[in-house]
Design goal:
With about 80 residues, the protein is mainly alpha-helical. It is built from four helices and no strands. The longest helix has 17 residues. The two termini are about 20 Å apart. The mean pLDDT is about 85.
Length: about 80
């Protein structure tokens, strides 16, 4: 399992070793946002991963522009302050 996949996001199933499909990535983003709603912020590595260009399709599919703009900015700020 990559270090950016937070196992706490998968209380109902085994933690995946990778997220190769669009469906896997959309599910991950939904779990990530749900955790955020309860105040559980992701680690810096997770933020860096989901901001990569190859995640664009999944972010777009979730129709969560706030994830790509304001949440990403907030996450970047939080990740920097956690160093």
């Amino acid at each position: 399992m990559p270090n950016w996949i937070d196992g706490a996001l998968y209380p109902d199933t085994d933690v995946p070793d990778e997220l190769p499909t669009l469906a896997d990535r959309v599910d991950f983003l939904a779990r990530l946002c749900s955790a955020w709603d309860f105040g559980l912020l992701p680690d810096r590595e997770t933020v860096e991963e989901i901001r990569r260009l190859d995640w664009y399709e999944a972010v777009d599919a979730t129709r969560l522009p706030s994830l790509s703009i304001s949440r990403a900015k907030t996450l970047a700020s939080l990740a920097t302050s956690r160093r």
